[in-house]
Design goal:
By secondary structure, the protein is mostly helical. It has a domain of 38 residues: Histone, subunit A. The protein has three helices and two strands. It is elongated, with a radius of gyration of 29 Å. The chain starts with a helix and ends in a 7-residue tail after the last strand.
Length: 95
Amino acid sequence: MSLGPDDVKNIAHLARLNIDESDIESYAESLSSILDLVEQMNTVDTTDVLPMAHPMDVSQRLRADEVLEENQREHFQKIAPKTEDGLYLVPKVIE
């Protein structure tokens, strides 16, 4: 797909960009080459290709999920300014 100077001016207007008149031709060439690349990528058959979550085929090393500290909820509830039914009560900040 080939973009002309008028297309670049319209895109710049929509994106609220100020482009110098001397740069419009180079922008047209760059944008056209990007659109050509996208068009080329659209022609590739990806029917049997599974989507990937990450470009590198790696697995996350995770540590074992084990409890390292004891539950101190009762202790923290006792020293809190206000609690009710196991919840902390805080002042209203948004009306």
